[in-house]
Amino acid sequence: MRPLRRTATAVAAASTMTLSLAACGALGVTGDSSEASPTKGNDVTVGLLLPETANTRYDKFDFPIIRNKVLELTDKQGRVDYQNADADASKQADQLQQMIDDQVDVILLDAVDSHAIADGVQKAKDAGIPVIAYDRLAEGPIDAYVSFDNELVGEVQARTLLEAMGEVDSSDKIVMMNGSPTDPNAKQFKAGALSELNGTVDIAKSYDTKDWKPENAQANMAEAIKAIGVNNIKGVYSANDGMAAGVIKALEAAGATELPPITGQDAELDGVQRIVSGEQFMSVYKSYPQEAESAAQMAVAKVQGKDIQFDSLTQDRVDSPTDKDIPSLLVPVVALTRDNIKKTVLADGIYELSEICTAEYKAGCAAIGLSK
Fold first, then answer.
1. 14 membership: H or E segment, kind and range
2. Can you tell me the distance from the alpha carbon of 202 to that of 135, in angstroms, rounded to the nearest whole number?
3. Using CA atoms, how far apart are residues 89 and 105, in angstroms rounded to an integer?
4. How many Å separate Cα 279 from the centre of its chain?
């Protein structure tokens, strides 16, 4: 059984999500006491547990956006207790227990290991602390889930890869560099990608990459090159930008004269610059501000008893291995290529033009119209 169940037509539901939330008054509105009987005032403490630092998004985007939104929603009286597990599941379990002991009001949990953390989620539940799964679907009795439509991410990556490869047949060999086997999102990205790739091309090698680490992806890719031959690889499905960097290093070390199309995800600055230079074909841009702000709104609404606002933010439903019909919000995604950098990460203020178009990338930026 697939853990993700879309409650409406997938793409249509995703593309209209922002409008439907705005109509309900969910986005950018704190609500008032007439919505429900508040259980907590503005002195809210939100525990934020993020999984790792290898992906720069967590420290650069997620934490500061959530912190600032909590301050806005609580008239600057709320606070965020932030801990990062550095990809260590045991460390995250200890951090979760400490937040329970500290009696935070609500926990936003981005799990290192979605299965291993289930006992900790149950302990929080027993202590009366709501847990909202953030970005990755944790097991255990979570109260809600906010993330992106992860199978759609994989579908978008695979479709864009096939388009970049041009006319393909089932003998064209590709390598799949999937994410960590302990991350449920990685399984969903992979499932979405396989729904497009199976039967269309030859998946000559496929790897589940420990901890999403670029160096592990590089080692996997070197092994694939040795088995397949560097010039026989027509495309590489990389589940994120960090691993794409490792893939490229392995290809260059093997003497690749021309890089095949390579996918990514997260629109990391390095990834965007590789797209500008032509080393990486695409990434998946996900609106971290929308995901993070929605998570903060869910957390504050939950502990303040604002049920109408909370319900308006969680109109989707998903299943985890332990629970069904979890109230959820699935945020839409966009394929990021050289053609739409200006309309995505620049338009949304994720990066400044000067950050992308440094001296090394100035020529590439000019070639695609990214200049002042």
1. helix 10-15
2. 31
3. 22
4. 22
CA angle, residues 211, 215, 219, in degrees to nearest 5: 105
SS3 261: coil
CA atoms within 13 A on the CB side of 327: 18
- Per-residue pLDDT of the chain (372 residues), as tens digits, is 334 444 332 333 333 333 333 333 333 333 433 333 456 899 999 999 999 988 888 998 899 999 999 999 999 999 999 999 999 999 999 999 999 999 999 999 999 999 999 999 999 999 999 999 999 999 999 999 999 999 999 999 999 999 999 999 999 999 999 999 989 899 999 999 999 999 999 999 999 999 999 999 999 999 999 999 999 999 999 999 999 999 999 999 999 989 999 999 999 999 999 999 999 999 999 988 899 999 999 999 999 999 999 999 999 999 999 999 999 999 989 999 999 999 999 998 889 999 999 999 999 999 999 986
Q: Which helix (H) or strand (E) holds 81?
A: strand 79-84
DSSP 322: S
Going by C-alpha positions, the residue among 195, 192, 245, 193 that lies closest to residue 221 is: 245
Distance CA 93, CA 121 (A): 9
Three-class SS state of 188: helix
Please answer whether residues 268 and 60 qualify as being in contact, where contact means their C-beta atoms are separated by less than 8 angstroms: no
β partners of residue 236: 175, 262
DSSP symbol at 198: B
Of the candidates 287, 331, 3, which has an alpha carbon nearest to the alpha carbon of residue 142? 3
Pairing of strands 283-286, 333-336: antiparallel
